[in-house]
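Postdoc handover notes: sequence design on the structure in folder B. Input tokens:
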């Protein structure tokens, strides 16, 4: 598992064809789900399967929060009071509310994001002034700065000090070291560059919070800060905790953007068709310039959206993991077969496996392991019969 990562699950599935099985590791049991029907059973048992129990250990290892702040974060951790109060629950509900498609707050964030992207792209040299660049590095920097500016506003620390972008990705790519050496003094000895990078990011985020620069940020930045502060966190610790929000913003966005550009640029016909779609979403100004109406990208660009979904299917699947709080019995919705998940174990939906299954995404024109922007995707009619007679919409498994 350490060597192959998520590919290990794919190898096991193609060898044994099991929709649910137990994997014994040095850390205990893991239950791996690689079937849409067992995934349905997994979601129906959500009351005894916890995500927040997995979040809690990261608060100290990654965010370096003090004991008092950790206690605030873990209050009502699994909604024991039944009122969805507490930092984790309230910020979760905030994100769902302010970033819901079609909301004014999301449109405002998107507008700033596209304006920032346009600034970077328009600054690129043209003609004889062009020079080669590393696509991953370039995408990482402009998407990181544009995304964080859209959330944190004109005082975005990552835009004011661009070197923090490299510091952030140093942290993101070495998370395993933070878990192995959670004590700052030990981390400073074992991985001094990583320690210093995190300290610089912490300092910038603490300053952002202490000077109340979040009041000029997006609704998400303002309200998430108020939630933490109203629960009793200091401004310094609230700013330090902001690193978790930065991770949520960037860890999927940057890789997805990189792979989208890579896949689409490799196909000249596809690229031409995408440009035609996007061009239709622009308006010409009096001074012979063009303005992109960003909201039309979702409603008027079916090929663009299909290509993005296909990119996410192949390059950015998220394996959903939960901690089993109590012995939990899953029941297969078609066969009635049951499977017991033991308390204290981990259960994980192997999305990487499901996204490669021919019975869901296969097509005579392109096997599921290949990128195909035109892969059929009909939200209203895409129903597949899997594992018996259970109807499963293929759309459900693009976003697991």
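Designed sequence:
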């Amino acid at each position: 598992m350490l060597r192959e990562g998520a590919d290990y699950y794919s190898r096991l599935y193609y060898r044994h064809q099991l929709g649910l099985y137990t994997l014994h590791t040095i850390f205990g049991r893991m239950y791996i789900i690689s079937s849409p029907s067992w995934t349905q059973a997994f979601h129906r048992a959500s009351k005894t399967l916890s995500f927040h129990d997995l979040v809690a250990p990261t608060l100290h290892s990654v965010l370096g929060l003090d004991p008092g702040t950790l206690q605030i974060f873990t209050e009502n951790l699994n909604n024991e009071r039944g009122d969805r109060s507490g930092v984790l629950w309230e910020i979760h509900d905030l994100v769902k509310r302010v970033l819901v498609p079609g909301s004014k707050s999301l449109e405002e964030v998107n507008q700033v994001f596209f304006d920032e992207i346009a600034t970077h792209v328009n600054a690129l040299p043209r003609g004889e002034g062009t020079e080669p660049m590393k696509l991953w590095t370039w995408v990482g920097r402009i998407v990181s700065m544009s995304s964080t500016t859209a959330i944190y506003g004109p005082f975005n620390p990552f835009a004011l000090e661009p070197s923090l972008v490299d510091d952030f990705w140093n942290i993101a790519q070495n998370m395993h070291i933070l878990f192995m050496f959670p004590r700052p003094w030990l981390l400073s000895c074992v991985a001094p560059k990583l320690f210093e990078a995190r300290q610089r990011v912490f300092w910038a985020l603490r300053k952002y919070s202490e000077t109340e620069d979040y009041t000029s940020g997006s609704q998400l930045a303002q309200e998430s800060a108020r939630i933490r502060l109203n629960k009793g966190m200091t401004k310094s610790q609230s700013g330090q905790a902001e690193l978790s929000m930065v991770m949520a913003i960037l860890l999927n966005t940057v890789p997805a953007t990189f792979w989208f550009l890579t896949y689409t640029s490799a196909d000249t016909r596809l690229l031409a068709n995408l440009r035609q779609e996007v061009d239709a979403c622009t308006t010409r100004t009096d001074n012979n310039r063009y303005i992109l109406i960003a909201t039309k990208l979702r409603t008027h660009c079916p090929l663009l959206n299909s290509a993005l979904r296909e990119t996410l299917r192949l390059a950015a699947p998220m394996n959903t993991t939960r901690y089993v709080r109590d012995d939990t019995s899953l029941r297969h919705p078609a066969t009635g077969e049951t499977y017991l998940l033991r308390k204290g174990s981990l259960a994980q939906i192997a999305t990487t496996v499901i996204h490669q299954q021919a019975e869901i995404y296969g097509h005579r024109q392109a096997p599921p392991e290949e990128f195909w922007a035109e892969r059929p995707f009909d939200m209203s009619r895409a129903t597949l019969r899997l594992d018996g007679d259970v109807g499963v919409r293929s759309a459900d498994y693009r976003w697991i």
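Context for whoever picks this up: The two ends are 21 Å apart (CA to CA). Don't rerun without checking with the PI first.
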